[in-house]
Amino acid sequence: MKKDRLEVLGYETATTGFLSVAYKKDSSTSEDFLEVDQEHQARFSLGALSNLAKGRQGGEDSAVTVAIRVRPLNSREQKMKAKTVVSVSGQETTVHPPHSQQKFSFSFDFSFWSCDAQDGCYASQETVYESLARPLLDKVFQGYNACLFAYGQTGSGKSYTMMGYNEDAGIIPRFCEEIFLKAAEVKEDNVTCHIEMSYFEVYNEKLHDLLTSDKEKNKTKKTALRIREHPELGPYVAGLSAYVVGSFADVQAWLELGNKQRATAATGMNDKSSRSHSVFAMVATQTKRETSDGESLTHTMRSHVNLVDLAGSERSSSAQTSGMRLKEGASINRSLMTLGKVISALSEATQSKKKPFIPYRDSLLTWLLKESLGGNSKTAMLATVSPAAVNLEETLSTLRYAKQARSIINVAKVNEDSNTRIIRELKAEIEKLRAFQRCSQGTDLMKFDSSLHEILSLKQKLLEQEKKLTEAQQEWKENLARAEQCKLEEARELQKASVSFKVDNRLPNLVNLNEDPQLSEMLLYIIKEGQTKVGRHMVDSEYGIQLTGALIADSHCLITNEQGTVTLTPAADAETYVNGDLVSEPVTLHHGDRVILGRDHYFRFNHPVEVQNGRRASEGPVACKEMLQDFEFAKNELVESQKQRIEAEIEEARLQAQQEMMQELQTARDLAQRELSAQRCLYEEQIRELQREMEDELSMKQELLSKEMEQKRHKHLGKLLLTEPSAQELEESQLRHHRFMEALQLEKEKLAQEMAQVQQARLSREEERKSAARQGTVP
Length: 779
Fold this sequence. Notes:
Layout: E1 3-8, E2 21-26, E3 31-36, H1 46-57, E4 60-63, E5 65-70, H2 75-79, E6 86-89, E7 92-95, E8 104-107, E9 110-113, H3 125-140, E10 146-152, H4 158-163, E11 164-165, E12 168-169, H5 171-187, E13 191-203, E14 206-209, E15 226-230, E16 234-238, E17 243-245, H6 248-267, E18 277-292, E19 295-309, H7 316-319, H8 324-349, H9 364-368, E20 378-385, H10 392-405, E21 409-412, H11 418-438, H12 445-495, E22 509-513, E23 524-526, E24 530-536, E25 545-547, E26 555-562, E27 565-570, E28 576-578, E29 581-582, E30 587-589, E31 594-597, E32 601-606, H13 608-613, H14 631-722, H15 727-774
Parallel strand pairs: 5-9, 5-20, 10-19, 10-20, 24-25
Antiparallel strand pairs: 1-2, 2-3, 4-21, 6-7, 7-8, 11-12, 13-14, 13-17, 13-18, 15-16, 18-19, 22-23, 22-32, 24-26, 26-27, 27-30, 28-29, 28-31, 31-32
Helix pairs in contact: 3-5, 6-12, 11-12, 14-15
């Protein structure tokens, strides 16, 4: 067989040639294999050969496991009578557009159908965990890194799948519970498992630790942490708190503390922390002790686990966001777009010989997931989608996203501690030298002494490494005690703001409500006997309940608990709502009441005594329902109450405006009536003056006519006296007199017609004024 390359992988010393293990490549078959000297193969364990092979290969190729989960139709989609356009058959997911004959099919490692619980192929929380997360747990105990991240549009069921709700636990709590059960099992095989945890979020491209709070009271926002990159371990968060946990109860306590920190920040300064990527990280360190030839051998493996709940992608048009929410959505979409670029580049890298540039550092999210995407990790991706036709575009986008992720190849390797590897190598060296010692008869004495000296040196190094491991074991115990102390300190920091961790079933209390179900009922405020003051969180404040927010007054309200009767008294100019109604007077609280302080802090009032006595004093249509009032219920109640109040204010303003308008119209009518009366008097006076002038003119004309007639008569009489008129002259005179009388009569009739027209015009104008006054207008 022709060999074109030979590389020795064994650890040979200058004094012996005990082990001959070689990596060879056959040029004729292009296959790699290991060849071990047959004489000493029995003395070399198969596990060592496996580790040697992994050391040569640098790890095993591992494709990203991709699963799809289809959630049920939500209430909004049911009201819209949305049509289901997604179907699942085995590993295949198919989308049927409603207005097209074309269909889109995608094949994944797992396709979970969670739309109908009555369906035979329904995938429950347990099914999803067993199929997707449990294999990662097994890999963790084999020494591999593991990562699982959930991706999907807003409201597609990511947080429900990762964290669960109430008794229906999700992947993270199930994983944490079983990792301790598994640790108890391997403990029987002389394997000790130490677990550390961290919990942080990425909000608006800033990273915040959820397991520690800023001790400086003058800070209104948490300090943003920075990411650094280790040449071997990859990216890590500088200054991130990591606490040792010894049981699942410890993890639950830390998770509760982290979610309380997250819920507290969600209402302060409009800092909606629920719109963020949350990362739950664990480090599992396994230490196995074995005894060989009376000496102890320790084998250590360290696995990093990242469980990531990504914030939902959304379209600003469909989500109708603005202001801070629009900025949050843009930041989320930008980080998810960078994640898409990374996935696309890694997908192309598996299909081409050239190594493309991977833009990990374009976003904090992708930088954190660098080892999980294309690095040293066993990775699984869960994509959640909606089956409704109204979300068709987002569903297709998510499925294409997941299809690309499926082609990513990671190079996962067992993460052995360097000290463990050195100890194993030293053990192998000692074994080789001992074997050489046993068959050293007839050899050179100088070479024999050199071997003995090397054995003593290796034993000394071995003792030093054993001492370091013992110190590490002691350090772990100290870290566990320190973690417990830190947990108590963080709990005390929250308790300074009256956030309680234990419920007293005898005392009334307020629990927070949040739009993110994972953050609801995280904060508990006990209402003790006597008076409890509520106000703004300030340095050295003595208020029983301290809140943050722009609309929280320095002294917001007073809650009095006297013999089981709880009364809330709001301060002046402090917005306080009870069951959606704005209150300004003292009001008695009853079990189930919704209390909203400053529009940002939503609470539900619980009164255990009333529950035990079977009393519900929250009367009215909204309180008759025996159901758990959540954030949406309280918010809709507030919106409805504000809507009714605004409608009442609008109606009151309309009636007041109408009344003012009627008053103005009456004033204008009175003014117009006075003006009309004055004008009528003026017109009547003018008409009377005109009549007097016409009468004077008529009398003057009559006098002139009389005078003229008299003159003519005298003249005619004079002529008659001088000459006796003929019959013809008398007839002409009578005719002239008759004509004159007719002309006089025509003049009288003309004057009478003019007087009638003037009178008619006056009456018409009066009728027009009266009609205009009745219509409310002034001519």
